[in-house]
Specification:
255 residues, alpha+beta, 2 domains, 5-stranded antiparallel sheet
Amino acid sequence: MTKFLFCIISILFFSAILPSNLCAQNPEESRSRSIELSDKEGIPVIIKHLPDWERKQAEAKFLKSKANLHEILGERPIFSTIDFADDTEAVTANYPAGKLLIVEYGTPQASSETDRVIKQYLADPARSSEAFYRRIGNYNVFILDANDQAAANALFDQIKYEKVVRWLNYDPFAENRAERAFIIETKSLFIGTVIAILTLLLFAIGVGMLAGLIFYQFRQRKRSEFTVFSDGGGLTRLNLDELTPEIIPPAFLKD
């Protein structure tokens, strides 16, 4: 009986304590950790995609919420286009071209939708000078406080989205890639065959014309060696026009 009462009291105690401990966790604290950390350096992977990240990692700021964004870079109107979902993270660092901000979304759909909203926002001439912007993979990249478009583009070009999706089981896009590869290969084969046929045809025509020209020149040279030309083909021909030289010697005619 004593053991039974002890078990009931223990269950009631832990059922009252554990929920309170779980509720006491700070949600912002749980979101402060990166979704993906580098195995070697132990830093968020997105920091390693900064240009010259080895030198910039000490001063780079990792962001996981809109509050962090406003705290580090201030409240800017263009930040209204950025939505920090649970799988969204960002990093910022200073460069000579301006303040670089890389925002990474967990899905291409979220990044694409944000890209559409940002481009629509910057399409307004009154807002176009707030930042330079480019989408790179699932990264939505901003360069703030910048005036040089060429320097901004050079900084954009140094950012590479290098993540690769690997399917654990069946790749749903394998058939599409195979179909595309088949179409490209068939197209290349068709074009190559047509080019080969046309090349052989032109070669045959060229060889035929050259052979015909050589034969024509040969016949012309032979014909020029003839002193008399006859169209009789070696047959007996009456000399009615008295233009053909006499073949029979005159002595036979006298007899």
